[in-house]
Design goal:
44% helix; globular; 145 residues; five-stranded mixed beta sheet; alpha/beta; Nucleotidyltransferase, domain 5
């Protein structure tokens, strides 16, 4: 499962059964940054539904590779996720995933008001896909043989 954690929304994506492609699932919205209980409960329910064995959480590094306030909040969220779900949570560099998500949705002709609803899910899918590409389950050529 891939997550794009933000102050008010969390994009969620999952992989196919073979761990080759990431698909956007939903965007979880909360009323304020500190209200995480329902977000954690929804992630836990989705993890059960999709039989998730680990969570890949986007880490918002600054462009100069330093960690700022959002990165600190994300690392704290990672600890809460591990405690709540019992799953391993791996932090993954998410720089420019939101920009890339916006570009992809624009190129696909998605109207602005609809892009806002989808951008976090798309970013989560990009985070997860980037992780899976760097950590292949098996050589893809083995799938046909």
């Amino acid at each position: 499962m891939g997550l794009d954690f933000g102050s008010k929304t969390t994009g969620v994506a999952v992989s196919d059964d073979l761990g080759i492609t990431a698909q956007a699932v939903e965007t979880i919205t909360r009323k304020s940054p500190g209200k995480l209980r329902q977000t954690l409960a929804r992630i836990e329910a989705l993890a059960d539904q999709y039989h998730v064995d680990r969570i890949i959480l986007g880490l918002p590094k600054n462009m100069n590779n330093t960690l700022g306030e959002r990165a600190q909040a994300t690392m704290e969220f990672a600890q809460l996720l591990t405690k709540r779900t019992g799953l391993a949570v791996e932090l993954w560099d998410e720089r420019l995933t939101t920009v890339e998500s916006e570009r992809i949705l624009k190129e696909a002709g998605v109207r602005r008001e609809h892009r806002k609803k989808s951008i976090d899910q798309m970013a989560a899918a990009l985070i997860l896909q980037s992780y899976m590409d760097a950590h292949p389950v098996m050589d893809k050529s083995e799938l046909n043989g």
